[in-house]
Amino acid sequence: MLYAILCYANEETVFAWSKDEEEAVMARLVTVQEPYARAGKLGPVGRLMPTTTATTVRKGKDEALVIDGPFAETKEALLGFYTIDCDTLEEAVAFCKQLSAVNPGSSSYEIRPFYVFRPGDLAT
Amino acid sequence: MTDLAWIDTTLAAARPRALGALLRYFRNLDTAEEAFQEACLRALRSWPDKGPPRDPVAWLILVGRNSGIDAVRRGARLEALPDEDLISDTGDAESDMADRLDGSHYRDDILRLMFICCHPDLPATQQIALALRIVSGLSVQQIARAFLVGDSAMEQRITRAKARVARAGVAFETPGVAERAERLSRVTTMIYLVFNEGYSQSDPKRDACAFADEAIRLARLLLGIFPSEPEIMGLLALMLLQLSRRAARFDAEGQIVLLEDQDRSRWNREAINEALALIEKAIRHRQPGPYQIQAAIAALHARAIRAEDTDWTQIELLYRTLEHVQPSPVVTLNRAVAVAKRSGPAEALEMVEQLVGALDGYFYFHGLRGNLLMQLGRNHEARTAFGRAIALAQSPAEAAHIRLQLDRLKADAETSLG
């Protein structure tokens, strides 16, 4: 079974870390990841940029709306995710608008740029 | 990380929101600061045993508010009774919950807290000191060390600035659209002042360098509560781009390394990528402003893998736009640099000569003028201009940089004689 693991934290606290604290935490995370990576079990691991870089595409009456900031509703659940390599934010927005148009169940797509922490090596 | 370190970081991160809300309740900065201080002390006592609360900010507001009320009541025996609505405004835990859910309060609370530090009567250094003390919660000692003054001198300066702010009165009603825009504009200026105080330091060990990171934290906070303001995106992007070059800006001896000579592999790519993402968001709004334009210029430098790849034509156009939005001789001087790169020194010198009236007392004016004259082979005039620049240098690093160019002139002269 493939599992997606989504990391939640208090952003203001995490961004108040000093460089030393940050590096210490990252080093400990890598240590935990290592055995799973060696066994070929670990897929891509990413670190999302701050929520201030987020853009949200929300289903509108006719066309989808583009809103600055992260997805903030608490009534809806996270049901899936994509990773995609786009040249511009515009391209990512266009992709989400297409998804939104063909999926009656979709409500919002949050677009967040991220750094590849580890590219991963899943076979499937 | 130990529990205590985590608690410290959490308290620091919670400060602007919690203190901003307490200021709204108590309408008095000293009372609010004391209440927040007391809440932090209680957090240090209770969180290690009971575990951290789910919402640390709400916890601190509730505890701070209760302890603040006690303090006001104790004080009331000696002083005049507080305002009726101050007491009734202290409500119950239920309304705290309501407040917690209402993000729009937080928004104006944080903005107000930042705004009281930008009183126009306060000189820039006092605005910076006040913001670092009140919003960021740095200690007086930390700020004093960064400004290279004694603790008591800084304490006095901050006390005076606070008194000035208190006399001015603080608007507690929810601001209208125009008023909010005005506050935002003043606050972004203040944040950029804090940034520059840190960024302009040539000694990486100087305490003030940390101000640049603090300014970025404040800008992220501000953008978090005003997510659709393209100028805040621009300001944050601009600061991230400038700071991305921190490791490459000075050599081992503390000498300035010019942009074109910097080792670009030492630029912080994470910061650059975050900035580029923010600029893309800002552009979608089609409301260009000075911070966005400056960020776009910095982004063109960041995108050039080698100095010779820099798109000077585009940079010149952006400076032209900036001149239009925010006319200033310094902007024109910067455009002249782009013109020199794009079309050669003669055209640039023509532009520069017209600025002598406005910029005769400005280090960079004479530095650039000397450099352009040198490129044109007018070495005697170049030497005079460099001499003027050295006399106006604000730091040893600036003076040393000009001396280097004078040395080059001297070497040229010797070669041509020999």
UniProtKB/TrEMBL annotation, chain A:
Protein name: YCII-related domain-containing protein
InterPro entries the record matches: Dimeric_a/b-barrel, YCII
YCII-related domain span: 1-114
Gene3D superfamilies: Dimeric alpha+beta barrel
Pfam families xref list: YCII
Coiled coil: none
Species the sequence originates in: Metarhizobium album
Entry similarity comment: Belongs to the YciI family.
UniProtKB/TrEMBL annotation, chain B:
Stretches assigned to the RNA polymerase sigma factor 70 region 4 type domain: 114-164
Biological process per Gene Ontology, one example term: DNA-templated transcription initiation
Annotated DUF6596 domain residues: 183-282
Coiled coil (residue ranges): none
Sample GO molecular function, one term: DNA binding
InterPro entries noted in UniProt: DUF6596, RNA_pol_sigma-70_dom, RNA_pol_sigma70_r2, RNA_pol_sigma70_r4_t2, RNA_pol_sigma_r2, RNA_pol_sigma_r3/r4-like, TPR-like_helical_dom_sf, WH-like_DNA-bd_sf
UniProt domain RNA polymerase sigma-70 region: residue ranges: 15-77
Record-linked NCBIfam families: sigma70-ECF
Record-given protein name: RNA polymerase sigma factor
Species whose genome carries this gene: Metarhizobium album
Source species taxonomy: Bacteria, Pseudomonadati, Pseudomonadota, Alphaproteobacteria, Hyphomicrobiales
